[in-house]
Amino acid sequence: MPVCPHRFLISLLALALNACVTTTTATPPRLAIMQGVTGNDYTQVLVLTEGEQGYRFVLVDAQGRERSPHSTKVSRHASSSWRVQHVAFRNLTPNTTYLLRVYQHGERRDERRLRTLDPQRRKLRFAIASCMDDRTPQGDIWQQMLALRPDVIFLIGDNVYADRYVKGIKYGTKSWEIMATPAELWRRNVETRNYIALFKSEELVPVVATWDDHDYGINNGGRDYPYKKESLAVFDAFFASQPSAHYQRAGLGTAAFFNIYAFNFFLLDNRSFRVAKAVAGKQQQHYGRKQLQWLWRNLQGKDYAMLVGGDQFFGGYHRFESFEGRNRQAFARFMAKLKTLPTKVVFISGDRHLTEIMRVPAAQLGYQTYEFTSSPIHGTLHPSNWDKTPNPRQIAGQDLRHNFMLLELERPRAGLQLQAAAYAKGGKLLFSGDYVVR
Ligand SMILES: [Fe+2]
Question: Is residue 395 within 8 Å of residue 433, measured between CB atoms?
Fold first, then answer.
């Protein structure tokens, strides 16, 4: 077939244009950036980078002035070229939007918006999410969450499936019973951080985290996991904020106290100190004695507190993991102690691969309270079997939907007022309600 010279020229031109387009549009993908705990006048970001040389981080104010970090620190693992750069800024103006700008070798590499806290705020709006399997499509669920404009996001466990899709150590009879080695923990944290849309979003929102079994590194694991020290170092690299007036670690696993707008949160570590095998009496440990001593000590002087755990507190009705279901006697001791305290608590949990709200009757702690469970934001879905094993405490629930929860806290003259709403992928409201603890 003869080739028309014009067509040949056009094809050449198209090829050249294409090459041009390919080279000029090859902008690198956004970096994975997590905003850490933020105050009225400080913030911090954790930036995942491949290698660490050539990066420079600045905050830009509304007048275009660039401000350098107060401190920087790099977390790394010998097995990987991926680093987490911890960058902190101080002496900021309250309630102000800044641009975080990342330079690489002098070129602009990435830009995000972030905000300092508004000291006048009396209401807190926060999101809770758990079970983030990077092999389950996330769709637009993180964008849906961000569109609701939470002040802070709690990632409350199985934030990484570090014991899945890995070369780990086989420990059980089932094919998936693999415990993650430190190199795999690091690799899976890198993969998941690079996957989750939250960390690529235009607007950053402060994140506070604790873990559950899969990010700890072993399914249904406890204190016998041989890499718990190394796993904590990986958690600290990817999720820890610097200690401040708003955030203090207990020095016991991931346990942390976080407070914002006069609301108190205790993030508990349900893995490092748990006796995972079936034992009775005093041997039963879910959070461990030291962590509980820390909790009791730090609840003093607080009228209300939110207790945040990876797995459910009141989950005795089902056969999967929960404090009540796995360590019933330890749970009874925990409840008996809580009942003696003047602090009133609300429970927050994940892990269940379904979402529900439970009412804890006044008979239990001397006041009526609630447990809010949200899971999975993107992960496997299973039927609840609530028809065969009903939850007597449940007041709202939904299975078979990827979900997160949005809560609003207020302090009217008496009590703690909560508004809770569970959302599914696509933005559909699954259930909502207003609750008061007093
Ligand atoms: Fe999970």
Answer: yes
Residues 6+ away with beta carbon under 8 Å from 223: 271, 272, 273, 274, 275, 276, 285, 288
Asked if residue 371 lies in contact with residue 338, where contact means CB atoms within 8 angstroms, the answer is: no
Integer Rg of the chain from CA: 23
CATH 3.30.530.20 fits 32-115, yes or no: no
CA of residue 283 to ligand 1 center, whole Å: 26
Say how many Å lie between the CA of residue 181 and the centre of ligand 1: 19
CA of 185 to the centre of ligand 1 (A): 16
pLDDT digits (tens, 9 = 90+) for 339-361: 999 999 999 999 999 999 999 99
Fold of 124-437: Purple Acid Phosphatase; chain A, domain 2 (3.60.21)
243 CA → ligand 1 middle, Å: 28
How far is the centre of ligand 1, averaged over its atoms, from the C-alpha of 219 (Å)? Answer: 9
- Sorted by sequence, the CB contacts under 8 Å of residue 23 that are 6+ apart come out as none
Instruction: Dump strand ranges (E) for 186-246.
Output: 207-209
Dist. CA 310 → ligand 1 center (Å): 9
- This prediction has a pTM of 0.93
In the block, tokens 């006041």 appear at 367
**Span from the CA of 351 to the centroid of ligand 1 (angstroms):** 5
Mean pLDDT of the chain: 94
What tens digit of pLDDT does each residue of 387-426 get?
Answer: 999 999 999 999 999 999 999 999 988 899 999 999 999 8
What's the CA-to-centroid distance between 114 and ligand 1, angstroms? 29
> Smallest Cα–Cα separation from 239: which of 269, 274, 280, 279?
269
Dihedral sign computed on CA atoms, order 228, 230, 231, 236:
positive
Domain boundaries along the sequence of the chain: 32-115, 124-437
- Distance separating alpha carbons of residues 38 and 427, to the nearest angstrom: 27
CA of 378 to the centre of ligand 1 (A): 9
Paired tokens of 355: 């979402």
